Amino acid sequence: MGNCRDADEAFRIANYEKAIGLYFVYLEDFPDDLRAWINLGISFGRIGKSAEALKCFVRALELDARSSEAWLNRGIALAALGQHEDALDSYERVLALKPDHQQALLKKVEALRVLGHDDEANALFRDFVERRKAQLGRGAGPDGQ
């Protein structure tokens, strides 16, 4: 039986190869653990295995289609694979769930630029900067709180 704590610890200290092996063992017994699938996918991504990472995020989304973290990481994996239109769709799904998600906003800007939509990317970035200034002026944290 796999132990998720050991996998999580390997993940936490950036020992991604070890984490991958431990998450595989754990997921054999607990195949519906959303967090384990996401961490497994992130681990694959961190060692440059974006196709494997993508499979993990697809599985995570099968478990919870409203997981903004799974959508965000799906987009990152797709972008690494050169699938920028699909990555953009993933970032837009994050933003539909969490409109002020800063990382998704910035990843969307990147995707728009790669796709040649510079005007839209620039407008989105300017809007992001203005909202961020307003948040900081109110003493809000990085997530607007």
* Rg, alpha carbons: 17 Å
Which structural class best describes the helix and strand composition?
mainly alpha
Report how far apart the termini are. Answer: 40 Å
Helix and strand run = HHHHHHHH
The best one-word shape is elongated
Number of helices: 8
Written account of the structure:
This protein is mainly alpha-helical and 145 residues long. 76% of the residues lie in helices and 0% in strands. The longest helix has 20 residues, at 118-137.
Task: Summarize the structure in short.
This protein has 145 residues and is mainly alpha-helical.
Task: Tell me the layout of helices and strands.
Elements: H1 4-12, H2 16-29, H3 34-46, H4 50-63, H5 68-80, H6 84-97, H7 102-114, H8 118-137
Helix pairs in contact: 1-2, 2-3, 3-4, 3-5, 4-5, 5-6, 5-7, 6-7, 7-8
Any key phrases for this structure?
0% strand, mainly alpha, 145 residues, 8 helices, single chain, Serine Threonine Protein Phosphatase 5, Tetratricopeptide repeat
